[in-house]
Amino acid sequence: MIKGRFVDNLGRVYGVYTGGFIIFILLMAVLEQLGVDAATIGILFVAFTICIYALIGWLSRTMQVDAYYVAGREVPAVYNGMATAADWMSGASFVALAGGIYFGGYGYLGFVVGWTGGYVLVNSLMAPYLRKFGCYTVPDFIGTRYGGNLARIVAVVILVVASFTYVTAQINASGTIAARALQIPFEFGVWFGLLGILLCSMLGGMRAVTWTQVAQYIVLIIAYLVPVIWMSNKQGFGVIPHFSYGDAVARIQELEPLVGLGMAATDSAPFGGVRVLMTPHNDPQGGMDSWKFATLAICMMAGTASLPHILMRYFTTPSVRDARRSVAFSLFFIFLLYFTAPALATLTKLQLLDPELATSIIGKSFEEVKNLAWVQNWENVKMLFLTDSNGDGILQLNEFFMRADIVVLATPEIAGLPYVISGLVAAGGLAAAMSTADGLLLAIANALSHDLYYKVIDPKADTKHRLIVARILLIIIGIGAALIASLQLTGILGAVAWAFCFACSGLFFPLVLGVWWKRANAPGAVAGMIFGFGAGSIYLYYVFTGGEPWMGIDHLRFGIIGMPVSLIAMVVVSLMTPAPDPEIQAMVDEVRDPSGKSILAETH
Amino acid sequence: MSGNSNSEVRVRHWARTRNLTILVLVVWAVFSFVLPWHAQSLNEFSFLGFPLGYYLCVQGSLAVFVLLIFFQNWRQDKIDDDAGLSGRE
């Protein structure tokens, strides 16, 4: 069933897997009815799914270079679409996206548009050409297209900074979920998450990550859609809520002035991260609001098209045409979750606010809300906080503090769904965080082992050596990321936006112009990467240490500073230095031609 | 493929590819920036029971992006086939 024949049987294998997962959910539902407690069901969900991923990881183990780096280039477009969707949809998308919409209103929707529209850039400007190139890693493209180790090394540095920022956020997210589902402290949850992540990626590299990511996509999309649709049916919001929650949006806009939205919190929370809802659900003001929306969307889109762990997924398809097709399927699979998240945010908010609904808490007696089971569960893990600051015995909106990250995780409990759904959501969130962390760790370790170790330090290393070095790096980076994640420096979402801005500041134009501008040369690319990345980082430091943001460009969108600097530096320096050799220019022509062999040899 | 060495075929193929890419990016920019920029005014209109500006940001633009990529691939495949550069080895 596995090896050789495995790719011919994908439909059957994943069909059986999906069926098995549904049977497992039903089994858990039966156990719940038999009186098994919530904690045990949560543990079973998390343990069962991680065991499956680890099994897939073990079955996909390999000692071949092209299997380790690019899954043997035999991943069909639809499956690569699913794997990319899982690779892409991080803990942030799964856990924090709906929470962000809940708290952020229109301003936050820039993320939703940015994280989908970015794939148009990937498809138009990047994926097919990088696939034709036949590289193993993104710095591999930069190094070969521009020539010289300097460009390659600078690209590796930017990749490591961007991906490492991102991976700490993912390990943080898996720690949060594991801590809640397994009822262990966050500090242990982080290491538990890392163990699962390494089990999936270490033995089989890209091949193992690909096939576990497909499995993780199936879990995460079921886990996202089922609770929303169930909640919607139970609460009478419509069979498929996506098309009918317009009324809920209108109702929220009606309620907002009544519940005193926008008042500053009267009391500060005793622990960080929790916040009071202050932004209207749908109230774009134009002007500065529009500017902030557009700048955020640009950074997220260009970041999507420059993040190496996404681009390297398109190196695994059999042909250029398949690479393009898989971009289309990637976005389709991502769309399924992204157009659900706003529905979830809207309906959950309505359930909390609308006094006509049984689930509402705002305006209810403080004691009554304080004793609700879900409120207590989340308050115990310091993710929710209530305070009767005006002492009137009633819970006001500005007395209800919540971490944005828990909106998705708590929705089933708020709507009064059986605990089996909470367990399912925890498994889905874990799948999302783990699949992204896998891809990121592999992107970093591969860049270091292939581009730094093999291409620069020891070009004579044999296959066995290369793959052992790759695995050792994977473990070291994973441990480093978990150590930093356990410090909880930023919220899940902040760190993710930084990763996108780092990537687009340094890599976007060198990658795009590598294909679209023949005249671009090595000094130009190096200047573009260093100045773009440097300008973005300096600006981030300036804003983050309390500097006044210029034109509303805050730490979430510092790519707006980095990208133009990168473009200008790259164009100016390229034009001031000699044009690239005819061979390089011929190589660019070759890249633009979708037929024929890839530029780099099959194994290199 | 026979067209590999023929630079004229390649030049024409690349010109058509570039034009398609520009068209796609124009549509992309309209749904990414132009329409969401005017969300406030678009909210005056209602679409499927949603305020239009809101609808675009949560569903409309997203759906357009998906369709746009499928459209682009369909046209690009045609361009590749016409030039005899279909990428089948």
Notes on the structure:
The complex is a heterodimer of chains A (604) and B (89). Chain A is mainly alpha-helical and 604 residues long. Chain A has one domain: Sodium/glucose cotransporter, CATH 1.20.1730.10. Helix content of chain A is 69%, strand content 1%. Chain A has helices at residues 10-33, 38-59, 65-70, 77-88, 91-104, 106-133, 138-146, 149-182, 186-201, 205-234, 246-255, 288-304, 308-311, 320-338, 341-353, 366-370, 373-380, 406-414, 419-457, 463-485, 492-516, 522-544, 559-576, 582-592, and strands spanning 274-275, 384-386, 400-403. In chain A, helix 2 (38-59) packs parallel to helix 19, helix 15 crosses helix 18 (406-414) and helix 21 packs antiparallel against helix 22 (522-544). Chain A starts with 9 loop residues before the first helix and ends in a 12-residue tail after the last helix. Chain B has 89 residues and is mainly alpha-helical. The longest helix of chain B has 31 residues, at 7-37.
Report the C-alpha radius of gyration of chain B, rounded.
18 Å
- SSE string of chain B, helix = H, strand = E? HHEEH
Strand content of chain B: under 5%
Poorly predicted runs of 5 or more residues of chain A: none
**Roughly how many Å apart are the termini of chain A?**
29 Å
For the largest interface, the chains and their residue counts are: A-B, 54 and 52 residues
Q: CATH first level of chain A: which class?
A: Mainly Alpha
Put simply, the count of helices of chain B is: 3
Main beta sheet of chain B: strand number and arrangement? 2 strands, antiparallel
Low-confidence stretches of chain B: none
**Overall 3D shape of chain B:** elongated
Largest sheet strand order of chain B:
1-2
Mean pLDDT reading of chain A: 84
Task: Give, in order, the helices and strands of chain A.
Answer: HHHHHHHHHHHEHHHHHHEEHHHHHHH
Q: Provide the helix percentage of chain B.
A: over 70%
Question: Would you report the number of β strands of chain B?
Answer: 2
* Main beta-sheet annotation of chain A: 3 strands, antiparallel
